[in-house]
User: Which sequence fits this backbone?
């Protein structure tokens, strides 16, 4: 059973540094993911583009999924 702190962590919106870390850690030269985006594309997005992504409703609501 998840604690209140764990529930709050998983329901919190992503922060820019979390998204930046996640995209930087993606492995290159792999096949497309379920979202049909290549890791290389995501890895080369700048902070402004990542910040824009954070304002998209489907990105902020999926903290329990893997990036």
Assistant:
């Amino acid at each position: 059973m998840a604690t209140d702190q764990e529930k709050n962590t998983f329901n919190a919106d992503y922060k820019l540094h979390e998204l930046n870390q996640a995209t930087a850690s993606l492995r290159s030269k792999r096949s497309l993911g379920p979202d049909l985006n290549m890791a290389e594309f995501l890895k080369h997005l700048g902070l402004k583009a990542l910040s824009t992504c954070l304002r998209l409703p489907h990105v902020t609501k999926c903290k329990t999924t893997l990036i």
